[in-house]
Design a protein that fits this description.
Blueprint (H helix, E strand, L loop, with lengths): L3 H19 L2 H8 L4 H14 L8 E4 L5 H6 L7 E5 L2 H10 L4 E4 L12 E6 L8 H14 E13 L6 H9 L10 E2 L1 H10 L3 E6 L12 E2 L5 E2 L8 E6 L4
Parallel strand pairs: 1-2, 1-4, 2-3, 4-5, 5-6
Antiparallel strand pairs: 5-10, 7-10, 8-9
Helix pairs in contact: 1-2, 6-8
Bound molecules: S-adenosylmethionine (SAM).
């Protein structure tokens, strides 16, 4: 019998295969990360700036997908960028678009990097697809590869957030359908896992809090205009590896 991790990774690969069968490649690659390519990319960058991102930051992007954040950072980013994902098709696409950045396909549990090698790590909409055990393993890996004082941004779906509840209802309604896993949590549980993985919790922000400074005005695919200060949609945390 395949392991739970193998099944989860296969579900995501099958999800991307379905999108590629139904859409042109660019559209499929945008849908694979949840659409709203430019608007969410801008807000993700804004969140990372609140966690300390500068153009010289060495950044680890776990679950980078087809490169929404990489596209946003682009040539302005001078530090190292490493994007990881379990789906070869999205990594192939991201690598084609951003030959100056590094990308790798992983097993979904490990980070192929030495200890103390990044300033900042991010998990945008990644622990939202993983059981707590797998999320915990990845947080341990992030704590390992971050330098002392390094930051980590994690977005999550909250059972207690009224704006996330319809997503939970839809997830519950489709539990019998073949699709990728959606994981909801309570912020206190995620904070506990992060602390056990070696982080201090620096900031916790609800998904509907408009606190993210962004440059410019964007329009999401559903027509919503995004201005500064923006909301991410998913809730998020800034974690910090304690300085030695
Ligand atoms: C909703 S997308 C978000 C992509 C990207 N972080 C963004 O915000 O644009 C979730 C991504 O996480 C990837 N993923 C799922 N499980 C993973 C794991 N265990 N390790 C790394 N990536 C994973 C999926 O393949 C998918 O590309």
């Amino acid at each position: 019998m395949p392991s739970l991790m193998d099944r989860l990774n296969d579900e995501y690969r099958a999800h991307v295969d379905r999108l590629l069968a139904e859409h042109d490649r660019d559209t499929a690659m945008a849908l694979a990360v949840g659409a709203h390519w430019e608007a969410v990319g801008a807000v993700e960058e804004g969140v990372l700036r609140l966690a300390g991102l500068t153009p010289d930051t060495d950044l680890l992007d776990v679950g980078c997908g087809s490169g929404r954040l990489a596209a946003r950072l682009g040539a302005r980013h001078r530090g190292r960028y490493l994007g990881l994902d379990v789906v070869p098709a999205v990594i192939e696409y991201a690598r084609e678009q951003h030959p100056d950045f590094e990308f790798a396909v992983t097993d979904g549990l490990s980070v192929p990097a030495p200890d103390d090698s990044f300033d900042l790590a991010c998990f945008f909409s990644v622990l939202t697809h993983l059981p707590h055990e797998a999320g915990y393993r990845l947080l341990q890996e992030a704590a390992r590869v971050l330098r002392p004082g390094g930051g980590c941004v994690v977005s999550f779906l909250e059972l207690a957030e009224p704006n996330h509840w319809p997503i939970f209802e839809a997830t519950a309604a489709s539990i019998g359908v073949a699709r990728h896993h959606n994981q909801f949590t309570h912020r206190d549980d995620l904070a506990l896992l992060a602390e056990r993985a070696g982080f201090a919790v620096e900031r916790v922000v609800g998904g509907w809090e408009h606190v993210v400074p962004i440059d410019g005005t964007y329009t999401r695919d559903d027509g919503e205009v995004v201005t500064s200060p923006a909301r991410l949609g998913q809730s998020w945390m800034i974690l910090r590896r304690p300085a030695d």
